[in-house]
Amino acid sequence: MLGAMTNIGFGIDIGGSGIKGARVDLDNGDFVGDRIKIATPRPATPEAVAKTVAEIVRLAEWDGPVGLTMPSVIKAQIARTAANIDESWIGTDVHELFARHLGDREITVLNDADAAGIAEVAFGDPRARQGSALFLTFGTGIGSALLIDGHLFPNTELGHLMIGDFEAEERASSAAKDRDELSFRKWAKRVNRVLAEYERLLNPGAFIVGGGISREHEKWVPLLEVEAPVFPAQLRNRAGIVGAAMAVAAHVTP
Ligand code: BGC
């Protein structure tokens, strides 16, 4: 089997709108073959999502270990929160759930931003592994991964920090930009407010900004005004899948 002979893993990123999986070359972080994407079932209950995950693994003809990421705090393989997916995830033993649907193989589930952060450390900008860095993903929500010399402090949820009377991600995610039809300039003002608060409380050495909207980083990163340097993530949307594949290959179980 391909996965057994070479350093290839498999990652799946469970998001609010799509569930995506791909084989990952663990030596360079590239996808091997096509990424498979299926729309997230509605409602996105654990059983419905696990069935979709099993379908992706079947379509990929993959029988090795599977790493999964989702927008939840995952502690000892139990989902503790659920953002943009069904609330019935809270308290779910995600390892048991996916093992039941994927059969006898190694499985690791971790938070999506944490996965993206460790992928960036391994294959992205070298500044992600030097000193303290706050890695953020801008998408449906704001995900956070706190890094120190490339090591992860897992399960931070800085997108939910209250700033004044609003939650950071409610105003400054890229979904908020779309929802409120904001220009990059107007949206960057909101992002600035959020980063200023993160800087006030955490003083990271650098901010790394990822998520799909980091593809257009030249339109907004130069408008950010925090003291620490802000640089765009290099892995963009690929990062969650890559980090998930890395986590299971390293036998990480947050
Ligand atoms: C969730 C986080 C997640 C982030 C990005 C937030 O709403 O609470 O767990 O990392 O969205 O998906």
TrEMBL record:
Highest taxon of source: Bacteria
Gene Ontology molecular functions: kinase activity
Keyword list, A-Z: Kinase, Transferase
Coiled coil: none
Cited InterPro entries: ATPase_NBD, ROK
CDD domains given in the database record: ASKHA_NBD_ROK_PPGK
Entry keyword GTP-binding: no
Annotated family: Belongs to the ROK (NagC/XylR) family.
Protein name: Polyphosphate glucokinase
